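DUF2147 domain-containing protein: structure, please.
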Amino acid sequence: MFKALIAIGFVACGTSAMAQMSPVGVWKTIDDDTKAEKSLVRIKDNAGVYSGSIEKLLDPAAAKPDAVCDKCTDDRKDKPLLGLTILRHLKQSADDKTVWDGGDIVDPNNGKVYRTRLKPVDGGKKLEVRGYIGPFYRTQVWLRVE
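Here you go.
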């Protein structure tokens, strides 16, 4: 009986650790240049397809309640920044189960859309968010809030 309880404990701990290695949750974005906190982004899983929306603006300059994505050129054009879906169509990689890719991310500051890859690191406490255009890429590190 005691061995069974210990085995169940290990399985429960392992499941909790794996859940943290998912991109699902709330993440704090950090400005590349100023290192200032910019926003909180909530990433959700909808039947294996991941998306992320701006839940809160932390940057006082962009925190205007009526701020919109005026530089976006797709269906997000002139949509409010608060609630804007910036990450779309991501799925867990078939080649590397620690990576979510195949989708895109929009930078509301310039309206550019990049192919993207997400990779939880540091035990799921951080998220590497890499945006690509052709062979060029930029990686940001987001911090888990919840």
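Notes: The chain is about 15% helix and 45% strand.
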